[in-house]
Design brief:
single chain; 361 residues; alpha/beta; Rossmann fold; 4-stranded parallel beta sheet; 14 helices; 10 strands; binds ligand F0G; pyridoxal phosphate binding; pyridoxal phosphate
Length: 361
C-alpha cells in the first residue's frame, strides 16, 4: 500500500528546489474529497467537500507550513514568527517543533478558539496575546521579522502559497479535471491565491508551462467573507472586523490584490455571508451531511446555499468546496441550538428500561 509522504515529496516536480533540501513534514495533504449528496440534491449540482480538517494539525495551514518551514530550515533559521487567528499558529508551532526551531505566535486577544490555543501551547510555542485584532498582529509580526533574526511564516511568505497550491492539484488528481466552480472562505486571502495558482499551473499556465498539463481548464473561484469582516466585498479595509467565524475575522487581508485577480481572471466572485448564514450552514453540514467543521469553514457552504437561493448556481455544475478546518477546533458552536439556547445532554437512569423509554422504544 502507498503511504502518503506529504505534499513536498508528492508534488516535488511542481515545487521550488529550495523547499526540498531540508524537508520538514508531518505527512500533510492527501485529504479526502468527500461527495455531499444531500447538499448536491438541495442545490441541483454535484458538490464535493475538500476536507482540510484531516490535515495533521486540523487545517489547510499544514500544506503551507511544510514548505515555509522547510525553506526556513534550509536557510538555517532558528526562529519563526506568525500572526494568527489560530490555525496558522497551531501549524507553525507543530512544524517548528519538528524543525527544532523556536516559534513565536501573535494572536488577537481573547478571539481565538480554545482548540487552536491549546495546540500552540501543546507544541511549545511562545504565545503572545496581542492587545489588538489579527491585522494589528500581522503588522507587528512583519516588523519583528524585518528587524530581528526571525522568519515570518504568514501567507505573505511566498513559500506558504507554494505549499497550499497543492490542494488544487489534489482536487484535479481526484476528479480527473478541474471542477466548474471552486468555493472557499476568504480571510487573509492566502488560500484563494494559492488555489488559483495551483489550478493555473495544472492547466499548463504560468510556472506549469514546462510540465504536462493535467487539467484542461480552470474553475471559477468563489470566495466568501463574513459580513462583519468583508473588506474585499466592500472595497475598503474594515477597522473593527467582527464575526463568530474568528478564523476569518480579518479587516485588511494581506493578499487582497491577488484575491481580486483570482476572482476576476477566473470569472468568479467574492461575496459576504452573515453570521446567521454561517451558523446555519455549519449545522446543515454536520447534521445533514456528516461533516463537522469550524464556523469559518462553513462560510463557503453558506455562500453556495445563498447563491443557490438567488438562482445563481448553474444546474448540474461540478463544485468543490474547501472546508478549511476541523470542527473540533472550535466545538462550542455545536452545543448551541438553532434558537441560541444551550444544548444539554438528556439524563437517564442506568437501566435498559429508562434508556429505552428515553429513546421512545
Ligand atoms: N478558514 C480557516 C479555518 C482559517 O483558519 C483561515 C485563515 C481561513 C479559512 C481563511 O484563509 O486567510 O488564506 O484567506 N486563518 C488564518 C490563521 C488567518 O491565522 O489561522 P485565508
Amino acid at each position: 500500500a502507498h503511504q502518503w509522504r506529504g505534499v513536498i515529496a508528492e508534488y516535488a516536480d511542481r515545487l521550488p528546489a529550495h523547499v526540498q533540501r531540508t524537508v520538514v513534514t508531518l505527512a500533510e495533504g492527501g485529504t479526502p474529497l468527500v461527495p455531499l449528496p444531500v447538499l448536491s440534491e438541495r442545490i441541483g449540482a454535484e458538490v464535493f467537500a475538500k476536507v482540510e480538517g484531516m490535515n495533521p494539525t486540523g487545517s489547510f495551514k499544514d500544506r503551507g507550513m511544510t514548505t515555509a518551514m522547510s525553506a526556513a530550515a534550509d536557510r538555517g533559521a532558528k526562529a519563526v514568527v506568525c500572526a494568527s487567528t489560530g490555525n496558522t499558529s497551531a501549524a507553525a508551532a507543530a512544524y517548528a517543533t519538528r524543525a527544532g526551531m523556536v516559534c513565536a505566535v501573535l494572536v488577537p486577544d481573547g478571539k481565538i478558539a480554545m482548540g487552536k490555543l491549546s495546540q500552540a501551547i501543546a507544541h511549545g510555542a511562545r504565545l503572545l496575546q496581542v492587545d489588538g485584532n489579527f491585522d494589528d498582529c500581522l503588522v507587528a509580526a512583519r516588523k519583528l521579522a524585518e528587524a530581528y533574526p526571525v522568519e515570518l511564516v504568514n501567507s505573505v511568505n511566498p513559500d506558504r502559497i507554494e505549499g497550499q497550491k497543492t490542494a488544487a492539484f489534489e482536487v484535479v488528481d481526484a476528479l480527473g479535471d478541474a471542477p466548474d466552480i471552486h468555493v472557499l472562505p476568504v480571510g487573509n486571502a492566502g488560500n484563494i491565491t494559492a488555489y488559483w495558482k495551483g489550478y493555473r499551473e495544472y492547466a499548463g499556465l504560468d510556472a506549469g508551462a514546462d510540465l504536462p498539463a493535467l487539467a484542461t481548464r480552470t474553475p471559477a473561484m468563489w470566495g466568501f467573507q463574513a459580513a462583519g469582516a468583508a473588506p474585499i466585498v466592500l472595497g475598503h479595509p474594515v477597522t473593527h472586523p467582527e464575526t463568530v467565524a474568528t478564523a476569518i475575522r480579518i479587516g485588511n487581508p494581506a493578499s487582497w490584490p491577488q484575491a481580486q485577480e483570482a476572482r476576476d481572471t477566473s470569472g468568479g466572485l467574492v461575496e459576504a455571508v452573515t453570521d446567521e448564514q454561517i451558523l446555519a450552514a455549519h449545522r446543515f453540514l454536520s447534521a445533514e451531511n456528516g461533516v463537522f467543521v469550524e464556523p469559518a469553514s462553513a462560510a463557503g457552504i453558506a455562500g453556495l446555499l445563498a447563491l443557490h437561493e438567488q438562482g445563481r448556481v448553474p444546474a448540474g455544475a461540478r463544485i468543490v468546496v474547501t472546508v478549511t478546518g476541523h470542527g473540533l477546533k472550535d466545538p462550542q458552536w455545536a452545543l448551541r441550538a438553532a434558537d441560541g439556547s444551550d444544548v444539554v445532554p438528556e439524563r437517564v437512569g442506568a437501566d435498559v428500561v429508562s434508556v429505552a423509554a428515553a429513546l421512545g422504544l
